[in-house]
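Chapter summary example: a protein plus adenosine-5'-triphosphate.
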Amino acid sequence: MEQFVVTTIRLSAPLIFAGLGGLFSVRAGIFHIGIEGLMLAGAFATVAFGTATGSVWLGILGAIAVNLILSFVYWLLIDRFGADMIISGLGLTTLCVGGAAFLMNALFNKRGSMTSAVRLPQPVVGPQEGLLAFVSELSILAWLLPVFVFIVWLLLRRSRLGLQIAAVGEYPYAAEAAGVDISRTKLIAMLITGLCCALAGAELSVGGLAAFSENMTNGRGFIALAAILFGSLEPIRTTLAGLFFGLADAVGINSQIYAGESNIPRQFILMIPFIATMIFVTLRGAFAHRRHSGG
Amino acid sequence: MASAEIVLRCEEIAVAYGDVQALQPTSLAFEAGRIHALVGQNGAGKTSLARVLAGIIQPAGGRYWIREEEIRESSVQQARKLGLDIVHQRFTLPPNFTVAEALELVSARKYAGAFYSYGALRSAWLRELRRADIKVSPSAKIRDLPIETNQSLEILRALAGQAQILILDEPTALLSPGGVERLFARLRQLRDAGVTLLLILHKLREVMAIADTIAVLRAGRLVLPPTEIAAVSEQRLSDLIIGEGASVEGPAGATETRESDKTRTVNLSLAGVNTRHSETEPALAAVSLALESAEILGIAGVEGNGQRSLVDVLTGLMSARSGRVELLGQDVTDLKHHQRRTIGLRAVPFDRVTEGLSLPLALWENVTIWNAENFRRSRFGPLKIGAMREAARLALEAFDVQYESLDQPAGSLSGGNMQRLILARELAQGARVVIAAQPTRGLDFRATQYVWGVLRQLRQAGASIMLVSSDLDELFSLSDRIGVMRGGQIMAEYAPPFDMQVIGDSMIGAAR
Amino acid sequence: AQDDPVRVALVATQAAGDNGPIDGLIAGLDMAAEEYGVETQFLEALDPATFELTLRNLARTGVDIIVSTFYAMGATSWLIAPDFPDTTFITIVGLPSGDEQPDNVQLMEYQFFEGAYVGGVYAAHLTESNQLGYTGGVPLPFAWADFNAFTDGARSINPDIETTAVFIESFEDPVKGRELAAGLYSSGVDFIFTGAAASDIGVVEAASDNDALVMVASAPLVEQAPANVAILVLIEWEKTIMQEIEMALDPETRGGFRYGNVQSGEISFHIPEAFLEATSDERRAKAEASLETIEQLIEDITNGDFVVEEDNQERMAADADGG
Amino acid sequence: MSRWLAIGLRVASPIALAFILGFTLFAGAGYDIVEVVNGLWQGAIAAPGSLEQSIRWAIPLAVISFGIIITLRTGEFNIGAQGQILLGGLGAASVALLLPGWPPVLVIPLALLAGIILGALWSAIAGVLKVFFNADEVINTLMLNFIAALLIQWVTTGPLKDDATRGETASTPRVDRMFRLSDGTGVSIELILIVVVAALLAWIIIERSPFGLKSRLVGSSPRVAAWQGLQIKRIHITTYLLAGAFAGLAGALEVLGPSARLVTGATPTLGFTAIVVAIVGMLRIPGALAAALFFGGLQAAILFLPIVSRLPSSGLRIIEGLVALLITAQFLWQRRRRNQGQKL
Ligand SMILES: Nc1ncnc2c1ncn2[C@@H]1O[C@H](COP(=O)(O)OP(=O)(O)OP(=O)(O)O)[C@@H](O)[C@H]1O
Ligand SMILES: Nc1ncnc2c1ncn2[C@@H]1O[C@H](COP(=O)(O)OP(=O)(O)OP(=O)(O)O)[C@@H](O)[C@H]1O
Ligand SMILES: [Mg+2]
Ligand SMILES: [Mg+2]
């Protein structure tokens, strides 16, 4: 049980960091499909800078810097040079996947994976009794998750910036009338996305592990995007959606471990989280639709 | 008066959108503490001028001053700092925001710092709402509000910033007669408190009722600088607006003779129809009506009283909960819109830009797509694009649409020409039953006359027309009968001669 | 072109840096370059749809020996070899896919399950909970063969031992590998056999966090958690690729199919010194106590006195109960 | 003429920039650029068989992009092509493997049909959920991709597994030689004919059918379409069916053509690259064909490059990524609106 909770949190944390980060862009009207790439870039840069400097915090700072630069370039392309945000976003992801592997090879002479010299502190480790057992071996970033969620909620739902971002994405005409600089607001949103994806990547590579491996995001960026949509572009619901996906993954893991006497092919068990997501999305869509059409 | 202070001054201000020169270099000045009207046909450049003054767009050339201060780099903030605000022609409040959030975002008055507590924001704006006597919860979603409330919120958010110069771009377009009067009363109060007002209006009657001075733009040029209202005649004004020598058909009452009762048949009827309530409107409650051949049935009412549901249920865009709909003798209660079209129903939607035509698609596509099946080479064969274009060309010519190429996107047409295109599509092939919803909203005088002419001709040819409009002048001059909608019901039906006072009272439910 | 050096290309179907086969083969390739003076080249072909094209391109550009990895490449080599009679196609871990083997095709397959069996025997000595686990990449027949042999080995010592196999569904997701392993350990498992390439990093991490034991097939993982990596069962990839290249260079020995196993010296066992130093006294004692049995077993397998059964089917619950 | 030049420049300049940036990085890391350039040139065009390979990759990209064009025109963002290809391959492989010894004239059309139908049905799941339950199609198609991958994994390790293949990639047995449309090169008259027919069909559907025109109206302005009595639900469902049909056809062609079997994990990015192809082709069939040839050439070049240069495969992904990142940007024609009246 405790292990199950810990697993859920650990699998959810990167999704929540990336999902809430991506939320800024999506609310500003940018369907940011490059999140997957930014997460991977964050994971690699943390390990690279961390290993080079010997400090995990400098590693994370480096990752943030890298992601801010990448986000700025992406913004430049789609806002200033009229590039298609989906195609450029897919390109950004591919570039990060290739770039991380290439640089790992060029800088550290490693292929495929490398171990990290640094790792995030884990405030509570080892077998624990009582409540502490639910937080054992969580990285400091995972501990800070509630604070992070609160900050995101504050920024998006209780700040002027949040109002401006929402207006820019939903009804640019309002932003224009209010004298909000639309380009600039988008840039800010995208930079925040980059920053959060750096944290998501760091949690992946030095949260539970101390290693980077090519493709270690393994589609988690896309799942984070799904969490945003699933969460109706709301911070709290996006967090819950991230937890749900982490939970689904944890259930998949546990169903393997405690499978018992089932003769159902395992692939079908592994499909459960995906099918569950579809069912949720469908129910929510149907419900929202009903409410909209007033019956 | 002549020595009054000048609060707004333009020298050679010009506006261009790409290659479109919306406003030629224009110089004019407005005096403080008065109500100035700015009039002109659609596309004359009124909004463009206003948007420059409000700091939303940069002029393509020229200089201008707000309260003696020359504006070099225009911005909304700068204009607001100098006490100038604007109520836009389109709504600026984001639909998914709550009232408090939307006002906070768009208004110059800010109650929140970088961060805010929702409770505090709510109560701050609740005070403003109370002060302005707007009965709406600050937590309501903008999209759930009736249009009139939305309009008052727009004015509230502009005034909340303590504007000393207030520009209102067509503020009356969506208001009921009572609403217009209340607005005008409020504007006079403001003027008396020293606020300078610049109103962009279309109806001369309204201009005469409120303005102190009037200026006229025509095709991007100032043809009359701000002039005392008493100094110009209505006849001269309409000449200035439309252009010298353009002949204008004056509004006429329903004077044409109608066919005798015997030859008339009921073409469209509702019997005891109920619907579900929608987001913005009450449900229809036991609505019955009958529309005969060769008649125009006008539907009056304050917006949001079920007109949309009525149109939707007649067109089949919404299904009735109970009751019966008949079209040309057929029971169509359970038929969808496309099936009703096949039987002979045509509709001119409420909003030409979001419902009437697809802005990115070409003109010929907008005209022909809906019945593309009729242009196939064989039952399952490919389309004859040439024939489609030819049909579109004929229809556009028949309705006198001004265009350059059949391939130009519909979004590049002017408002009046957009409406003509819609009429061309809906009416080209001898329509028998037509629902026309707000067919002249936002159109200038000449375009309005044209649309009216088309509707009259149709009636002459024996068609049944239901005309839903918030413009009583329009209803009075076209309708054979007028039904008044209130709260999802047809409250009363009137025959000519129509009495403005009676019908106006019926719309707002005032007892007399 | 007599004086041109022989060109050898290694085509990997899985990314380098796996701490496993590909890294081993690359090392062996470098050794072969030195040993036999051949010119070498390494490339990856990760998408199965590109296998055939890659082999053809290499052959067309005049590569003499093309070493590729795993069964699908073996089948592809088999298919196109007749078009390039001057090129030798070696697949390390491949099976004949027809009756008549082209004579420029050279295949070999490991019997790693022999190693897994020995690992099971060892694990049975060290476990306290009598629950063992296996973390695999993707459930393919070879994975089941390894897992089943591991189970059989453990039960040969203690029939009450329970084993559980789980799959990460990816050879490159260490994050999920860690969670799966952590889940296994918290369910009572105290010894895991992992064979999931780059995902193994996560499994070893979990072993270290839970102070539990793990058996790996890749040497660099030992450093990661010296107190927890209890045994290393290695495939000697370097040895294999060198032997294969040597066979291909000599027209007498070129072509054919063979097995690589304990007997051929291509599967080896190591109980890391670092483990014996870093682990608890109790575990060290148990590990040392098992040595005699293990060494005897390895000798029996090498001599052919003992044959490990190969069973590459997933055993359903009912079968597992039966035996 | 100058219009074509302009379009050519607009497409060429981002690609040139992508290569320049990539090469700079490679040079910085110490790789021989001449070798790399030569490898790309050889791989896409010059080396024997390279042109063929460019076409081999252009074929699936083009066919999938036809379906994506239809969905994008209808305003749907369907990212499910990846899963639909797999289902298409499954359909074709099943027919070809379950009817051994039947006459090819029967089996091949049946197999193609099965691929088309399975692809279409898979796509229709998302379509039906969208149309009748308003369920977000982006999430659902993404999920269906994951599910399809697992389904294929099950099929290739279970019901249709190849007993001879036991390696890191699970797959079905090979399809009988006589049912194949090409050899491993993936180019043949038959395949090209099928693509031409598919392109013509797609062109007629898009440009010359009531559905094609109506779907654009639905896509650009759904409310307008409703007011003109278009049957929006039917158009949406048809859109999904067609998109899935084209992707399914592409999957079937892979199995009956170059790949000869259904393999777990094959062509993992084809469905996404096809989206790029559709958009770069400006949502028109001739444009998509040209774009497919370009990206097919890039793919072929990228596969060939490691054979003549030491550049690791990650370097090639960098080039791919840079091309996609930059290809839709308009560098030569900075947006004019900066010096126009409007501010935003
Ligand atoms: N290229 C465009 N992009 C965006 N909006 C446009 C564009 N062209 C016109 N519009 C908008 O479409 C509407 C239609 O134009 P408008 O009514 O001003 O034309 P007009 O010349 O007055 O025509 P008419 O005299 O026939 O009514 C305007 O509100 C304008 O803002
Ligand atoms: N965003 C735009 N892009 C391009 N052209 C525009 C745009 N907005 C307005 N125009 C054009 O500029 C001209 C003037 O438009 P403007 O909106 O200022 O007219 P207006 O006098 O306010 O008309 P209306 O009475 O219809 O509101 C019109 O021809 C219109 O088509
Ligand atoms: Mg206008
Ligand atoms: Mg205007």
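Key point: Residues B 17, 20, 22, 40, 42-48, 89, 414-415, 442 surround adenosine-5'-triphosphate (ligand 2) (CB under 6 Å).
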